[in-house]
Design brief:
This protein is mainly beta. It is globular. The protein starts with 5 loop residues before the first strand and ends with a strand. The longest helix has 13 residues, at 147-159. The strands form 5 sheets. Strands 2, 3, 4, 19, 20, 21, 22, 23, 24 and 25 form a 10-stranded mixed beta sheet that branches. It has a 5-stranded mixed beta sheet with strand order 1-16-15-14-13. The chain is built from 2 helices and 25 strands.
């Protein structure tokens, strides 16, 4: 008989002596402009995760079958195309009448062998796919059907009356840690949790060498609320000292699929043994709580207080934003 995962709970506290400050956000636009042949506009429409790949930053879009590749030193942004969707579509939204067919890539993890893997949210059957980006120079991509993996994750969400919504992924030691975002107010329970899988088992499954990995541990996290709207995880990264840093936003949305107004955003981190977590309000360049929906975070190499973040505007006609996030004591 299968053993249930180890379960722990944690309530975040306020970090009263620390401040999380955003620099001035910069719009993400493609250096080459629009590419009608590939169906791409001149700007990066969405930004749901960010990961470092060498000297560049790869930005995942949840409604476009293309990644954005940012070169901070050259201040240039290019595209890395994913396979086209049904009927040759590369953009998915209500205007095109195909929003339900999008991959909804909401998380991205850097594997030890150099691959990046972007993960669908799992909020619907169409969103139960992974995209593997090879470590080679071309960054070859492969879309992987992952229904059996998401079925494993969904069991634990449904046990709590929650909608599955994976929004972050990191490798921390021997674990692949998936961040479940708790949001929605129409019949579901907002459930924020970190679901831990054995990394070696996940790699074996990914490379068709083993069975689907099982959830070994679950850390349920009470992130608090803003204006009565629960905060929910939006991404995470592992800092140079090994701690897990994360973002959480309070989005007044009806469910795991719908967008809504953002009431605020917090930065936080877990200590090394998951015994405590602190959060702080993210302030904009004017010192006011940001209204941006920060969806992606990546630690700077060798640092512990500066991060690259991206904001998704949820307005396809406007470019997504990138900014520097600094933690000050």
């Amino acid at each position: 008989m299968r053993r249930p995962p180890e379960l722990r709970t944690l309530v975040c506290t306020d970090a009263t002596r620390l401040v999380a400050s955003l620099g001035h956000p910069q719009p993400l636009v493609y250096s080459a402009g629009a590419n009608p042949a590939d169906g791409l506009p001149a700007h990066v429409r969405a930004a749901s995760a960010i990961r470092r790949r060498g000297a560049r930053l790869v930005i995942v879009q949840d409604d476009v079958n293309a990644l954005a590749v940012l070169n901070p030193q050259a201040r240039s942004t290019s595209s890395l195309l994913l396979p086209e969707g049904p009927h040759g579509a590369r953009i998915f939204d209500d205007t095109h009448g195909n929003k339900r067919q999008k991959l909804d890539l909401e998380a991205c993890v850097a594997l030890p062998d150099g691959r990046l893997v972007a993960l669908g949210s799992g909020s619907s059957p169409k969103r139960e796919r992974l995209v593997s980006i090879a470590a080679d120079e071309r960054g070859s991509v492969e879309v992987i059907e992952a229904g059996e993996l998401y079925a494993e994750l969904r069991v634990h969400a449904e046990e709590r009356g929650a909608e599955l919504n994976i929004e972050g992924a990191v490798v921390q030691g021997a674990l692949l840690r998936l961040l479940q975002r708790g949001n929605g107010k129409h019949g579901s329970t907002p459930w924020n949790a970190i679901l831990d899988l054995d990394l070696a088992g996940f790699l074996d499954w990914l490379d068709d060498r083993g069975a689907r990995p099982r959830v070994q541990r679950i850390l349920e996290v009470d992130l608090g609320a803003i204006g009565g709207v629960p905060l929910g995880f939006t991404d995470a990264t592992v800092m140079a000292d090994g701690q897990l840093a994360f973002l959480a936003c309070a989005e007044d949305s009806a469910d795991a699929v719908s967008d809504g107004p953002v009431l605020g955003c917090r930065f936080g981190w877990l200590d090394a043994d998951d015994r405590s977590a602190v959060t702080m309000v993210v302030l904009d360049a004017d010192g006011k709580p940001t209204g941006l929906k920060l969806e992606g975070i990546e630690a700077r190499e060798g640092g512990s207080s500066v991060f690259d973040v991206v904001a998704d505007m949820d307005r396809p006609c406007e470019p997504a934003l990138t900014a520097e996030l600094t933690i000050r004591g």
